[in-house]
Amino acid sequence: MIAKISIRWRIQIWQTLLLSVIVTLLVVFLYQKEKERSQYEVDRDLGQRVVDMMRLLPHVKQMHGTPETKRDSANQGGRRGRAHPKGGRRPRHGGEGRPKPGRGADRHGERSIPEGARNSREVNEETIKNPDYYVAVWTKNKLSLNVRFPEGRVAPDFTPSPAGVYQTRGNYREVIGGAPSENKVLIGYNMEKMNQELAALAWSLSGGGVCIVIVGFILGWLATGWAVKPISEINEVASEIADGKLAERIDIKRPSKEIASLQRELNQTFSALEKAMEHQKKFTSDASHELRNPLAAMMLEIEVTLASGVDDDETRESLYVCKRNLTEMSSMVQGLLALARLDEGQVEAGPEIAAVDEIILETVERLQPMAEEAGVEIHTELEPMKVEIVTAHVHQIVDNLLTNALKYGKAGKKVIVALSGNKDTGIEIVVQDFGAGIAAEDLDEIFERFYRADTARPQQDGSSGIGLAIVKGFVESSGGSISVTSEVGEGATFRVKLPC
Ligand code: ADP
Prior knowledge:
Elements: H1 7-55, H2 57-64, H3 67-81, H4 107-112, H5 118-129, E1 133-139, E2 142-147, E3 165-169, E4 172-178, E5 183-190, H6 192-242, H7 257-307, H8 313-343, E6 352-355, H9 356-366, H10 368-374, E7 377-382, E8 386-389, H11 391-408, E9 414-422, E10 426-433, H12 467-477, E11 481-487, E12 491-498
Parallel strand pairs: 7-9
Antiparallel strand pairs: 1-2, 1-5, 3-4, 4-5, 6-8, 9-10, 10-12, 11-12
Helix pairs in contact: 1-5, 1-6, 6-7, 7-8, 8-12, 9-11, 11-12
The structure holds adenosine-5'-diphosphate.
Adenosine-5'-diphosphate binds next to helix 11 and helix 12.
C-alpha cells in the first residue's frame, strides 16, 4: 500500500502539534501567573486600605457624616474623583497610587490627626472618593457608614483572622477587618477594569501563540524541505532511470552519513543496471546482425532449390513451410535490429521532403494481397501533403499498424487509413479497424515488447509482439506520440501524431 502522506508532511504535522501544545501550555501558564499577581496586588491593597480605615475610623465618620448623608457626599466625591488622573488609584500598580506622607493633608486634619497617621487619612479619603471602591462600617453590628455599599445588602459573614476575610462577589473583591463585637470595616474593589485587562492580555497571548505556531510551521516546512531534499533527489533520479535515462546519477552534494551511503549504493546499482542494459542491447544488436546473413543464405538456398524444380510434392511442401517460417524469422530479426538501433539512438536516415500520402498509398498497395486474403477492404482518406519527414519511419509505422488492422480486423468489414494535418501542426495518421478490439486492461501494455494481448487467440502468422513496440519507438524518436482507443468487439483506432 502506498502511503498518501509524504515524510515531509508527517514530520510537519507532528512538529506543529508539539509546538501548539507547548505554546498553549506557555500561554496558559503566563496568563495564570499574571492573574495571580493581579489578584495578589488587589488583596494587598485592600488589606492595607482596611488597616488604614480601622486606624482612623472615628475621624473618617466625623469627616464623612452619617450613613444617610454619606451616599450623597460619596457620589459627589466620586464625581470629584474624576479630576484624578485615570479616575483614581489602581490597585494593580501596587503602592504607586497611595498618597505620599504629608501630601494633600488638609489644615483641620493636621491638628486633629496624629503625625504618623496622615498617610492613612489620605488613603481613606482616596478610598472614599474613588468610585472603584465601596466602604461599609458596622459598629456593634449596626451599619454606621455606607459609601457606595450596594443597597439592601446585609453584612457578609464575618470570621476574624489576622489577615482579615477576603471574598469575591461577581466583579467585586471585598475584605473585612475588625473585631466581631467592635467596629467592622468592609472595603470592596470593582475588578471590572482589571478583568478587562486580563481578557485583553489573554487575547494578546493567544494571538502571540498563534503567530509563534505559524512562524514555527513556516520555519519547520523550510527545515524539513531541506532535510528531505536528498530523498527527493533520489526519487527524481530513480524516476528518470525508470523512464530509460540510465546515465542519470544522484548528485552527492551535502552528504549526511546515512543518506550519503544510500546515495553511493544506489549510484553503484544504477551503474550496474546501465552496464547490464548495454550488454543486453549489444547482445540483441549483435545477435540480430549475425542471424541476418545465415537466414538470408538459407532463404536463397530454398528459393534456388524451388526454382530449379522439385518433383516430390512432399519435399516441395516442406520447402514452402521452411520458406514461410524463414520469412517470419527474418522479419522478427529485422524488428529486433530496429529496436536495438533505437535503443542505441542510431538513426538510419534523416528527414527528407516527401509526399506522405504517396508513402501511405505505396504501403497500402503492398499489403493489398494480405487484405484480399483476410476479406477486408482498405479504405483511404488521405489529404495530399508534402512535408519534411523520415520516410523510412512512416513506411514502417503504417506497415505495422495496417498489418495489425488486417490481422485483427473482421472479414467483410473495412479498414480505414486516414492522413490529415499541415506543415505547422504536424501530421496525424489514423488506422481504424472494426474487428475484435482490445480489452481495456491491455491498452497500456500492447506497446511493450513481446506483449500479445489475447493469449487465448491462436497465434497469427508472423505474430511476435514487437510490431507496436517498434511503431512506438519510431514515433517517439521522431518527437511524436501514439494513442489507441478500442472497445472489445467494436474494433480499434490507432492515432499517430508526427511533427514535420
Ligand atoms: P503482434 O506481432 O502480436 O501483432 P504487436 O506488437 O503488433 O504484435 O501487437 C501487440 C498486441 O496488440 C497483439 O498481439 C494484439 O493482441 C494487439 N493488437 C495490436 N493491434 C491490434 C488491433 N488492430 N486489434 C486488436 N488487437 C490488436
